[in-house]
Design goal:
Radius of gyration: 19 Å
Largest sheet: 3 strands, antiparallel
Order of helices and strands: HEEEH
Number of domains: 1
Distance between the termini: 67 Å
Low-confidence stretches: none
Strand order of the largest sheet: 1-2-3
Number of strands: 3
C-alpha cells in the first residue's frame, strides 16, 4: 500500500510540473496520465491538444486556444450573415 501512494504522489507531482511547464491551468486539464515504465506524463487539454512530458524536457508554452479551446478574439468578429447577437432592431 505505501508503494502505491508513493507512485500516485510521484505521478501527481509530475503532472503538475508538466502542466506548469506548458502553461496549462488545472481547470483546463481534460485528462492526464502518468506512465511508470517510461516515466512520461501525457496531458490532454480542453482545447484538444495532447502533450507529453518527461522530467527535464524543454518545452514551449501553449497558446490560449490550445489550452482552453476558446478563441478570445471570437467576440470581436464582425457578423457575416444575420443580425448581430444582442442587438434587436
Amino acid at each position: 500500500m505505501p508503494e502505491e501512494k508513493e507512485k500516485v504522489k510521484k505521478g501527481d507531482l509530475l503532472i503538475a510540473e508538466a502542466a506548469q511547464a506548458h502553461g496549462i491551468t488545472k481547470e483546463c486539464i481534460f485528462a492526464s496520465r502518468y506512465d511508470e515504465v517510461s516515466g512520461e506524463v501525457s496531458i490532454v487539454t480542453n482545447g484538444g491538444i495532447r502533450v507529453r512530458y518527461k522530467p527535464g524536457d524543454k518545452v514551449e508554452k501553449l497558446d490560449e486556444i490550445a489550452v482552453t479551446g476558446i478563441n478570445p478574439k471570437a467576440a470581436k468578429r464582425k457578423v457575416i450573415a444575420g443580425k448581430p447577437k444582442g442587438k434587436e432592431a
